[in-house]
């Protein structure tokens, strides 16, 4: 089995992980080779020899790499020592065949990789969970406390970043040679806290004590330019070469994180770039007394890799975002070009040996940057460079929202990336000339397919740029892909009807079943066999037991254990006591108006009012659990969080609804928090406005763990319905066509509110200060936006959402029917594995052989 070498041969990056670990392990003695991989099941007992070996390895790391004794070590020290010991075993997994060069690699460029904690992944994929547990227990340490000491890697925000993390792990598990490229953020997005219900942001300090998983690669450093000017030089008759003279240069330094696949058969690399100044301090200014000014340039440079998604509400923020995107894209392309030249020589063969996937528009600048590298640095002709570029790049679109399809002002681009604007202009000119030659010279047609949007000031359309530069463009669910063809890329699609393809998202079952729900995994193994760990399609065998009362009891006991664990988390983080016997109704995702957390909150208010009106009725006990972060400058999203918290405060303290309704907003939503919530959820809220959620992956994770979905016909909800069956999901609301038709109706929101006394009453209570007596007008902007615009059609869908929620109540009150539905959800979710997604990408987009 081929194992990927993490760096390129032929230069200073020749070192494998195995060689690097002995250079960087702070003098730790070499360890004996790892034991052969043993098949991992939740019930396999580790051998005493394996436990002893790992125990001694952990102690050696604690002493020689951490510099602590067992008596002085903190939980964080035990985590670092354990991680380093396991990292050695990942290195061992790399050694076999490390000198082989794969025929083709995948390079996955993403601004986010929300990898979360890595210890559980490493233990699980190496088959060492119980071995590690036993080794630590021999030392008087519990594995759970060690796992809890690992900070979440702050490298992403939501679904986009978690998808990238699932994909890079699945590629390793399928032995697809791949390198993921991103930014090594010092602080990531932000740490969210709630002060009186208001979101507060603080830096996420995940790197405060270092990252034991990574290898620093100072030899893999590239120079990134910004600003300056471009000159022309005649190199031969009729041939002009342009040379970019940047006004500022930044160093991109590689930090490698190994990603081990299932059963340790293959290891890939996540290469993250850190921004460093060429000169860390202007010594003359420092010695002259200007101590702050002497490091000002360094601060500007290091801001590039400081935080994820800096606010773009100012011109400076917009420029920083552009600098971030170009920084990591350029470093990644320089790295892979250098690797290819070292291995193959001629860059004209790059499409045969490399597939570059752009995850959303953030790395779309790769189109002109690869052209620049090929033409300016390596002397290819325009024609050859364009052939290489358009046969190497692929582009994954993740949104249909116009405001989320990135554009950059031409003025900003010309100032920050002058050479790239020249290339973009030329690409656009040749593209529009081609339309003229085919009789498509209508001004409106040309404007719709142009890379430059001119309606409101000249702006570069990065989605259009990625579309033109890619061999294939893919959507991430069947509905999303169809809408791409008929909406945002309608006119470009008409020019090349084969370019857009669908690749529905998936999730890694190693993380989202094996790791986060060991009880359900054990139940699956005992019921359908150990092969289910390798072949998730065997989960379908659980369907045969869905109606069995004994199996239902075991399934329900598994859920009860997970709910009790989540109840402890809720109490610790919020002080709110919740009853595990209640229905746990969960909505966990980035806070955005189109995801419609507000619809959920308004229904919560209506339910609160209904319980108050009929307190003696037999209401279904519910715990409404929210989690998610709002962008710092997204005022309306932050107000929605405040509303949810204020509703929680009132409802939770009201004796009339005690035992029937609790509302919880869990702060600082993260991968590790999701791992606690998802196995405990009974109901999965996937209620975005139809046609606006590209796919979703939280819906897949929750359904896999047996939560029933209440949702619209949006994104992958449609495919989930098709797989689990319409009787095992709660669908409500307008479909995408209905949404568009309703938006064309005048005053549809006012009509919907007038037709729904329940909705009108809930909005009146919110708008009149029923949940904000200290500031009665606090939530008036929310109500006014619904009455006068309601862009996301909450009012249109409310009554049907209420109906679906009451259908959920009825189903919950029939336990045998509920647990049958839950088991069928788990049994029928195998198709949503990211392994399936990666096979489809490999075979149909990247043209890479899967072993």
Distance between the ends: 8 Å
- The Cα radius of gyration reads 27 Å
Shape: globular
CATH hierarchy: architecture of the largest domain: 3-Layer(aba) Sandwich
| Largest beta-sheet details | 9 strands, mixed
Work out the count of structural domains: 3
CATH class membership of the largest domain: Alpha Beta
The CATH topology of the largest domain comes to: Rossmann fold
Query: Given the helix and strand composition, which structural class is it?
Result: alpha/beta
Q: Please work out how many helical segments DSSP would assign.
A: 34
Strand share of the residues? 5-15%
Helical content band: 40-55%
CATH H level of the largest domain: which superfamily? Glycogen Phosphorylase B
Low-confidence stretches: 1-42
The order of strands across the largest sheet is: 5-8-9-2-1-10-11-15-16
Number of strands: 22
Short summary:
The protein is of the alpha/beta class and 851 residues long. The chain is built from 34 helices and 22 strands. The protein has three domains: 115 residues, no CATH class; 370 residues, 3-Layer(aba) Sandwich (Rossmann fold); 271 residues, 3-Layer(aba) Sandwich (Rossmann fold), CATH 3.40.50.2000.
